[in-house]
Write a structure and sequence with these properties.
This protein is α/β, with parallel strands linked by helices and 433 residues long. The chain contains 16 helices and 14 strands. It has an eight-stranded mixed beta barrel, surrounded by four helices. Strands 2-1-4-5-3-6 form a six-stranded antiparallel β-sheet, sandwiched between helices.
Length: 433
């Protein structure tokens, strides 16, 4: 009992200095905090069906900065650092997305934010992190032009299934710090061991969501969606793939997904088209086409013409020297190529012109409430024109009601998927024929 009370007190002390999103962000000294606003914010996020992520920014070379020789200089530097992070968060995020901004230890700043795992992607997380760093590092560089200022980052999702949300917050924070520091410490080893065990034991599941012909309302294809071990913090794909990316196991995880997909197609004796997701990082791996050929040899009877490789995320393909070559090789083997997330806040039209995909998937952010937003419908028409010019079919994602579906019909969109038509489920023989 005494130990539990001590842990609770340490938790309050640990999260004592907090920047809250009420009005303008500012510090609240510990003596004025009568309740734990972080705990309340995370709990509220969970209750509204969202996830919460802890993002850590670790000032990697703080001990090397010549401007921090005296205590007064250190104090001024930290004051500037907090100010720039506060401004960056206000610029990059909506107020409703922010749970807290926290000054931890001095060389670590922590952002806790709400995340919608149904709508956000790994690239969305990267864009948030990179946007904040661009602002903060740029501002510090202007103030200290002779200093090389460098942050390392890491992030972790808070486990909503844990018996104690307070404990989950602190655990996620420690893990995010370990990710940021890239250290071979116990916490990092635990995370690394967890993801490697998932891959080694092939402990993932694939669900299938139908892709519907808008004109006939018939099922034309299935998209296979990944889920981590049931009942764990990485059951949802965003936490699962975020851990894999930060631990250097993303390629191994995505190859496991492809293996499981081939296995499931063969078991269900599926003859319909199948969409399988891959990130540009995996598609740009020098081993990718060789490993795909090995899978085809293992699972005889599966035709590449049946499979569409869906390029997920909006990672830049620049610098991925094998990416375009691998895409060409996949096409020669008979695979079709789709580009995901078109219209999602930042342009991937240059990628479309370079790849000339067989299928363009329109992001759900453009589709949501499209029946009430004429600008969104105009954007849809623009993407349809691009698709026709490229000779691509169009799939609209995230259809949730009949009104949204009716906009697709009148604009002659080819295909659609979403909960309005059917939720993801297990692919079986009856469904796949």
């Amino acid at each position: 009992m005494a130990r539990r009370i001590m842990n609770m007190l340490l938790g309050v002390m640990e999260w004592g200095k907090i920047l809250l999103p009420a009005g303008s962000l500012r510090f609240y000294p510990p003596q004025f905090i009568l309740r734990n606003p972080v705990l309340e914010g995370v709990t509220a996020a969970f209750q509204s069906g969202l996830e919460a992520a802890v993002i850590v920014f670790h000032l990697q070379n703080m001990n090397e900065l010549s401007v921090l020789k005296g205590k007064s200089q250190q104090g001024y530097f930290m004051k500037q650092l907090k100010k720039y992070f506060r401004h960056a968060v206000q610029e990059e995020l909506k107020e409703e997305e922010i749970i807290a901004l926290h000054d931890f230890y001095g060389d670590v700043v922590t952002l806790i934010m709400k995340v919608d795992v149904d709508k956000n992607t790994l690239s969305d997380m990267d864009h948030v992190i990179n946007g904040l760093l661009y602002y903060v590092e740029g501002s510090l560089q202007k103030h200290y032009p002779s200093q090389q200022i460098h942050f390392e980052t890491g992030y972790m999702f808070i486990d909503k299934k844990h018996y104690s949300i307070s404990d989950s917050i602190q655990k996620a924070h420690r893990q995010a710090i370990a990710m940021a520091e890239k250290r071979l410490a116990v916490k990092y080893d635990d995370i690394d061991y967890m993801i490697n065990q998932i891959i080694t034991n092939k402990n993932i599941r694939l669900l299938a969501q139908p892709i519907i012909d808008v004109a006939t309302n018939e099922i034309r294809a299935w998209e296979l969606l990944t889920r981590g071990p049931k009942g764990t913090a990485v059951e949802n794909p965003l936490p699962l793939f975020s851990v894999a990316r930060q631990t250097g196991t993303l390629y191994a995880l995505e190859m496991l997904v492809l293996e499981k997909a081939f296995e499931q197609i063969k078991k269900a004796k599926c003859r319909q088209d199948i969409f399988i997701n891959c990130t540009p990082l995996t598609l740009g791996n020098i081993r990718f086409t060789r490993d795909i050929k090995n899978l085809l040899q293992r699972f005889t009877g599966i035709s590449p013409k049946q499979i569409t490789i869906e390029i997920t995320e909006n990672d830049s393909i620049e610098g991925l020297k094998n990416f375009i070559y691998n895409i060409k090789m996949l096409r020669l083997m008979g695979f079709r190529i789709a580009i995901d997330d078109t219209g999602a806040g930042y342009s991937n039209l240059s990628t479309i012109s370079e790849i000339m995909p067989d299928i363009i998937k329109i992001d759900r952010s453009l589709i949501q409430n499209i029946d009430k937003n004429s600008l969104k419908e105009s954007m849809l028409k623009g993407i349809l024109l691009v698709a026709r010019e490229a000779g691509s079919l169009v799939v609209a994602e995230g259809i949730e009601n009949e009104d949204e579906a009716s906009v697709l019909t009148r604009n002659k969109v080819d295909l659609a998927q979403g909960y309005f038509y059917a939720p993801p489920t297990v692919l079986n023989m009856e469904m796949a024929t």
